[in-house]
Fold this sequence. Notes:
- The protein is mainly α.
- It has helices spanning 2-22, 40-62, 74-96, 103-127, 130-133, 137-189, 193-202, 210-214, 223-233, 239-247, 252-264, 274-291, 306-317, 324-338.
- The protein has two domains: 2-179; 195-338, no CATH class.
- Helices cover 70% and strands 0% of the residues.
- The radius of gyration is 39 Å and the shape is rod-shaped.
- The relative contact order is 0.07.
Amino acid sequence: MAVITTLTTLASMLLFLASFLMSGAFAGRVPGGSNAAGLVVPLFGSILAAVLLLTASAMTLGAHRLDWVAARPGAWVMGLALGVGIAAVALLLAWMEQLGRWVAPVGFLAGGVAPLLAGSLLLLSLWAPERLGSDNWPKAAGALLLLSSALGAMTAMALLTDWWGLQKDNAARVAATELQEANERARRQDLTPLEQLREDYASYSADTPLWVFVAGLPDTDDPAERAFVIDRALKVPNFSQQLERTITDGHPRYRHGAIELILHVNAERLDPAWAPMLARAIDVSAREMAANEAWLTPDPMSNPNPTRHVAAMIAAADRFVPSTQLSEALVKLRRALATLPGDPEF
């Protein structure tokens, strides 16, 4: 049993010493960033060392090798062992949290000297108890361990105070953020939809793609809002190329939005070159109808108002000079509509 207790004590001392050295005697620079993950090694090392010290103390008590401490040494020994272990772990945490310059000198005593002193007393109790009972220095060592435990308790209180302060600061920041967001929501609610659009668009970059603007046109009924959206959409870079991509996109909402732009843009800005693009868009929709009999069923995400979508295709085509390509596309559209359930009339 003495050998096992000795090995347990030595393991505890070595782990305490390793954590002490890894922290630079509690005066080293605390790692940051990705290197901070390495702090788990000294932390768990100190916790394990404290557990081993407590275990070794209990085993030494069980062997009656600590009777020199007092008539009933159990409470004293286990209390000091627990206090020394807590102090070492608390000082390591205080160093990690960078609580102040006081951590280094206090840590040297409570996190460095005290654990090694406690382990040394256990080893002497196991192998040379006669050197302890008659000398006065063990009492001084015990007083030092008691001081270390007290410093550890105060360090733990400092850690709790720091943690509580952080919690209060975080709660205050969260409350301030929530209040700011609530005020912003209230301010936005007081704006008209057009004013909200102006604010939103002011934050967009100059190269924002066309689909961002036209995607909302199928849901826009206010003429002023629609005119504002169209005016901004016409300013996107490479408008013709973006219009061609958007109006033939596989997403019906984007096609519908681009068609709404053609339908409602001012006559002087209507470009005849858009007619072939519109014809291709109508072809895409006709093929989708032929493949999906539920095409006219509204879908809030992809096709929120299919009836309006079809009406927009037909009305937009009427804005251009009749052409073979547009006429053929409209014929395909009406044939596809005729195959759908119900009695769609356009």
